[in-house]
Specification:
The protein is α+β, with helices and mostly antiparallel strands. It has helices at 54-72, 116-135, 164-170, 187-190, 197-213, 223-232, 247-256, 268-279, and strands spanning 11-12, 15-23, 28-34, 40-47, 82-88, 91-97, 102-103, 148-151, 156-159, 177-180, 309-312.
């Protein structure tokens, strides 16, 4: 069989490669089919041999498997499942549940904003998914709209790429390169401090702020200015950009976006409970994914790596750490 267009192989492990979905900072994103079961999978690749050699390559491979195994433990209806991870002729890969839907990135613009109740509902589900992951010792590290898929007609909300950014980061400790999306990073993550689940809650707060307003809480004309604002400047009250946001929801967001981790919600469950209390402001029927939001031009295959960039800043936290 000839190689798939845009990708040099027609197979990875037991997966037949059907097509290239996209490329990003970490490698290719492929649509594969399990040759044994026929199940479709989204496959993310990472070439460890491009980064390491000798004993360092052996350690990088071992760490890759540990990180993938940690993420594979997650069993939650709102988390994209990791089927397996492996290596094929020097190319490491992670096979994940393939989700047909749209990511939330297209709903961060003013012309395509979701209703307030739907944003709260999505936030509640993501917070519960994070609570489960954190209870298993897994930190996402890259919560952002592009990493949350929705299929409104099917009532689906799925957090994707659990462990992917951390796996790549763990494989690059030698160079001090950290993968992530700076606009959604917590102050402690940008500062290179050890992080815990509260960092993901901050990133979720940024995502909800953007879904509600079409704007980010911090921005700057340069990366340095953006990072300074995230680390040092208080986020604006969401109501200055969307006045109809109820005070209770504004309060939840302000706490999620607090600079010190100890000032935020203690865990995902606590944030989910706070959002659930806000949801009581609306009729139950408005809190389900029942109607398609405003249409947007997009494909179901989203390259979740495309907006991920590399920062030269060490971070000592790893999922495999005690």
């Amino acid at each position: 069989m000839a190689a798939v267009s845009g990708f040099e192989r027609d197979r990875l492990g037991r997966y037949r490669i059907e097509r290239l979905l996209g490329r990003g900072a970490m490698g290719e994103v492929l649509l594969g089919r399990d040759a044994d079961t026929g199940r479709l999978a989204a496959i993310k690749t990472l070439s460890l041999s491009d980064e390491f050699s000798g004993d360092e390559l052996i350690e990088a491979r071992a760490r890759f498997i540990r990180e993938a195994d940690a993420a594979r433990r997650l069993q939650h209806p709102d988390i994209v499942a990791i089927y397996d991870a492996g290596q094929d002729d020097g190319l490491a890969y992670i096979a994940m549940e393939y989700v047909a839907g749209l990511d939330l990135q297209r709903y961060t613009h003013a012309g395509h904003r979701l209703s307030l109740p739907l944003v709260v509902h999505i936030g509640w589900r993501v917070a519960n998914a994070l609570a489960h992951a954190h209870s298993q010792g897994v930190i996402h590290r890259d919560i952002k709209p592009a990493n949350v898929m929705i299929n409104v007609s099917a009532g689906v909300v799925k957090v994707t790429d659990f462990g992917v950014a951390h796996i790549a980061d763990a494989c690059r400790t030698r160079t001090g390169m950290v993968l992530g999306t700076p606009t959604y990073m917590s102050p402690e993550q940008l500062s290179g401090q050890r992080i815990d689940g509260r960092s993901d809650l901050y990133s979720l707060g940024v995502m909800l702020f953007q879904l509600l307003t079409g704007a980010l809480p911090h921005h700057g004309e340069s990366m340095a200015r953006l990072m300074y604002g995230i680390v040092n400047e208080r986020a604006p009250d969401v109501r200055t950009l969307r006045p109809e946001v109820p005070p209770a929801l504004a309060s939840v967001l302000a706490q999620a976006l607090a600079k010190p981790p100890e000032a935020r919600h203690a865990n995902g469950l606590q944030l989910a409970q706070a959002l659930d209390a806000v949801a009581a402001l609306w009729p139950a029927r408005s809190l389900i994914l029942s109607e398609e939001p405003a249409p947007a031009v997009a494909t179901p295959e989203v390259d979740a790596f495309a907006s991920t960039v590399k920062l030269s800043r060490p971070d000592s936290g790893h999922n495999s750490s005690p």
